[in-house]
Each structure stands twice: as structure tokens, then as C-alpha cells.
Design goal:
The chain is an alpha+beta fold. The chain is 39% helix and 18% strand. It contains 15 helices and 13 strands. The chain has helices spanning 8-23, 28-34, 41-49, 54-80, 84-98, 101-112, 115-129, 138-152, 161-170, 266-271, 276-298, 329-337, 341-344, 353-359, 409-412, and strands at 210-213, 218-226, 247-254, 257-265, 317-320, 348-351, 371-372, 382-383, 386-390, 404-407, 413-426, 435-448, 454-458. It has a seven-stranded mixed beta sheet with strand order 5-13-10-6-9-8-7, sandwiched between helices. It has a four-stranded mixed beta sheet with strand order 1-11-12-4. Strands 2-3 form a two-stranded antiparallel sheet.
């Protein structure tokens, strides 16, 4: 299999193409080609023929900037007089700006590194090079397709017995005959080659925090718990008294286990037109990623959980928003200014999409908006000049919640990996019942190691 290393310039091209595709749907051919719909070089050449010109790119940038200018004007008018029509228009403009948020997050991730995009291209390469599952020939596919079409179009009592028998020979499920389990996977290749899945949202914590692979049950790290006393002036021959001694402690980050398990019938594995073992690996991986990222944000740190940076035990200081139920411009500025200067150079905001929409409406005391677009300058959008990362696991804005955090996550938070995803097929345990058992485990933990490098906003009047 050919191994492709994607150059850095290609990533810029992908972002440019994505920018145009957001505003101009006709460029979907590029996405189709990258997904390998026809699996060949010709599709890529055809896609490049419709690649966006500089004029098209400029139009999409102008569209975004025009939307933001109209958003500001509408918001300013709404602040002067509350009106249902203005609020509705403001919500629509907010939705318009949300169209560009995926691209902004992509640019932000590129600034943090190109690994995620390289992994994506590796998966495309793997799909392009994957051989088609073996068949006895096109004739068998044609017969099965005709039988499937026959049964699909008729009520159960009007189906031909021969067609039903042909389908039954290749119809399987996690428990055979259970369509909700997996029976639909046996649809003919021309009908259902792709498995449709809902999008799983997860917070990109690993791209921000420090990640360490450990060789034992936990990671221990010394930490200074008290600084030495202050220096003082002395005369030439004056005695030098002890000004104070520093104190030290030990932090420990455990790597508890996560576990997932599934059963598939052996006949399903034999007959299915899909790589079910590969599908299971992907499902287990998604389960683990969703679970660990939720814990990195809000985990309690006990009961075999990671410690989330929003949990009280993390020791991260909170800054009041200045309102009992909403985020205010002054509260967000207070959060931004509460971080020490040394941490601010690498600090980012984390918040969910609803909170991003609320922050777009905020202004400072001089009337300047706190959220500013950066796409026109090929840089990420910013809040108070700092990048932000969308975290679906951050809570919504409500009384007493912590919807926004700000800080240098690489110094503030550490993730420890003890065992990467371990996939364990078992063909023995369920053999008497005709099933194979697949187990998957992972050992991972995390916690706050330098709380002062991070601040969180609490929705409170004071």
C-alpha cells in the first residue's frame, strides 16, 4: 500500500477549499473526491477542475465579513430598543456566522499542529486502498440485488419464497434476524455500502493539554506548595536571618481503566459484506473518546474517574460573570485579565457553541465587540485577542454554571495514558451460543497540575 505524507502546503489548500465550500455548495465534488467515491486519481483531477478561484474565495470572505458587520449593526440597534423582530434577525445572523465556525476551529487546530489533519488523510488513504470484500462474481450480486429489491417493494405475505431464502442465506445480525442490531448491514452493496452514523461531539482536550505515556499505575510529580520567604536588604556586616523555606508536595495522577464489550454472531462475521471487526474498533474508540473528554472537563477525580478542570477538587479559581444568569462583557474581561501574564501567551478560551453565540453580542465599555473575526486575515477568530476552542462538554450558560474557561491548558492540565486501546477478540466464551465476544479496554486518567494557569467563569452576580 502506498504511503502518502501530506505536505504542509496541502493543509492550507484544504482549508481554502473548505472556506469556499461553506459558502458555495457546488464545490462538493472536492469532498467527494477526497472521500474516494470512485477510488481513483481521475476523481481528484476532476475535483481540481472546479477548485475555487481567488475571486470565489474573496466572495466567500466578503460574505462572512458582511454578515458580521450586519450582525453588529443589528445588535447595536437591539441594545437600544428591545424588539422581537430585531431579536429574530440577530438570531438568524448568529446562525449565519455559525456556518464559518467549523473552519475557524480547523484553523485553530492547525495552529496547534497538523497531526489531526494528517490522521484524517491517513484514514482516506486507507479507505482508497481497501480491497472490496470477495464475491463469487457479479452474477451473485445481481441475484441478491434483485431479491432484495423484490422483498423491499412487497408486503411480507406477497414475497417470493425463493427470494426470501436467498436473502436469509446472507441475512445476519448481532443476534441473527434482529434488524435493529445489524440485519440492515446485509443490504446489497449497491444499496447500502456506507453505514450512516449520527455525529458524535467531543471536546478536543488532547490537542490542548499535556499528554504523558506512563509505565506504571500512576504518574507522580513533585510540586512546590509554598514559596520561600521574601528577600530583604541587609547592611555590610549585619547578620543574615533565614527568610523562609519553600515547601514541596507530590502530585499523583492515576490511570484507571475504561471497558467496552460487544457480542457478534459467528455467522455474522462470516457472511457480512462489511468489516465488522474494524467497525467495532471504531465504535469502541468513539465510546472511549467521548467518555474521557467528558471526564477531562467535569470528572470528579474519584470512583475511577479522571479529574475535570471544572470540578471543585481541581482548585481552579472562578471569576464571577457579574450577572445572575448571563455572561457580561465586564465579566469576560475580568476572566481574561485575572490570568498571569506568563500564562496568557498560550492561553485559549473553551466554551460550547451556544456560549460562542452569546459572546458574539458582548461589547466593552468603549463599545468595541469582544469577539472579532479573523478569517479575512487567515487567522482564527478571537475573543479579547485570544483564540478559543469549541468544547461541547462545557455547560450551557445558566445560574451557577461554569460555561467558559481561560488559560494555558498545556501547563494547567495533564493526561496520562497507561494502556492504549486494547482490542481482545474471544471466540471461546460464547462459542456454545454461536457468538464471538469482543472486549476493549483502555487505561487513561488526567487532572489539574497547575491550577493558577487556568481560570473559569461562574454565572453569578458576585
Amino acid at each position: 500500500m502506498t504511503r502518502y505524507k501530506v505536505p504542509a502546503a496541502f493543509f492550507v489548500g484544504v482549508l481554502v477549499a473548505a472556506l469556499a465550500a461553506l459558502a458555495f455548495p457546488e464545490f462538493g465534488a472536492i469532498v467527494s473526491a477526497l472521500a474516494g467515491h470512485d477510488g481513483g486519481k481521475a476523481s481528484l483531477v476532476a475535483a481540481m477542475a472546479v477548485a475555487p478561484s481567488l475571486d470565489t474565495l474573496q466572495k466567500s470572505v466578503d460574505d462572512f465579513m458582511a454578515g458580521f458587520e450586519e450582525f453588529k449593526a443589528t445588535n447595536d440597534e437591539a441594545l437600544k430598543k428591545r424588539d422581537a423582530l430585531l431579536d429574530d434577525k440577530l438570531n438568524k445572523l448568529n446562525t449565519h456566522l455559525d456556518r464559518w465556525e467549523p473552519l475557524n476551529q480547523a484553523i485553530t487546530q492547525v495552529q496547534n499542529g497538523q497531526k489531526a489533519l494528517q490522521d484524517h488523510m491517513d484514514s482516506v488513504e486507507k479507505a482508497l486502498n481497501r480491497p472490496r470484500p470477495g464475491k463469487n462474481g457479479p452474477e451473485e450480486d445481481g441475484e441478491y440485488l434483485a431479491a432484495f429489491d423484490h422483498c423491499l417493494r412487497r408486503a411480507p405475505d406477497r414475497r417470493d419464497a425463493a427470494h426470501i431464502d436467498l436473502i436469509n442465506k446472507r441475512r445476519n445480525a448481532l443476534v441473527k434476524g434482529d434488524d435493529a442490531g445489524a440485519g440492515y448491514l446485509l443490504a446489497p452493496p449497491d444499496v447500502n455500502r456506507e453505514i450512516i452514523k449520527d455525529i458524535i461531539e467531543m471536546s478536543p482536550m488532547r490537542s490542548l493539554a499535556t499528554v504523558r505515556v506512563i509505565g506504571g499505575p500512576s504518574l507522580k510529580q513533585p510540586k512546590r506548595t509554598a514559596a520561600a520567604g521574601a528577600a530583604t536588604r541587609v547592611g555590610e556586616v549585619q547578620p543574615r536571618a533565614n527568610t523562609g523555606d519553600p515547601a514541596y508536595g507530590m502530585l499523583e495522577f492515576q490511570a484507571p481503566e475504561m471497558f467496552a464489550r460487544a457480542e457478534i454472531s459467528i455467522q455474522m462475521l462470516e457472511d457480512a459484506d462489511y468489516d465488522l471487526i474494524g467497525e467495532l474498533r471504531g465504535e469502541f474508540s468513539d465510546q472511549f473518546v467521548v467518555k474521557e473528554n467528558a471526564e477531562f472537563v467535569g470528572g470528579s477525580g474519584g470512583a475511577n474517574q479522571a479529574q475535570g478542570f471544572l470540578h471543585a477538587s481541581a482548585g481552579v479559581a472562578s471569576i464571577a460573570s457579574g450577572h445572575a444568569t448571563a455572561v457580561t462583557g465586564d465579566g469576560l474581561i475580568d476572566l481574561w485579565s485575572s490570568l498571569k501574564t506568563s500564562y496568557a501567551s498560550r492561553a485559549v478560551f473553551t466554551l460550547n457553541r451556544k456560549s460562542i453565540g452569546a459572546v458574539r453580542k458582548l461589547k466593552d465599555s468603549t463599545g468595541q465587540y469582544l469577539w472579532l473575526p479573523g478569517i479575512a486575515g487567515s487567522v482564527p477568530n478571537t475573543i479579547l485577542g485570544s483564540n478559543y476552542v469549541e468544547f461541547p462538554d462545557m455547560p450551557d450558560i445558566a445560574a451557577g454554571t461554569f460555561p467558559i474557561a481561560y488559560g494555558d491548558f498545556r501547563r494547567a492540565y495533564i493526561i496520562v495514558d497507561r494502556v492504549a486501546i486494547s482490542f481482545q477478540p474471544d471466540y471461546t466464551t460464547g462459542a456454545d451460543n454461536g457468538v464471538a465476544v469482543f472486549r476493549c479496554r483502555k487505561r487513561v486518567g488526567g487532572g489539574t497540575r497547575q491550577a493558577e494557569a487556568l481560570k473559569k467563569l461562574v454565572i453569578s452576580a458576585s
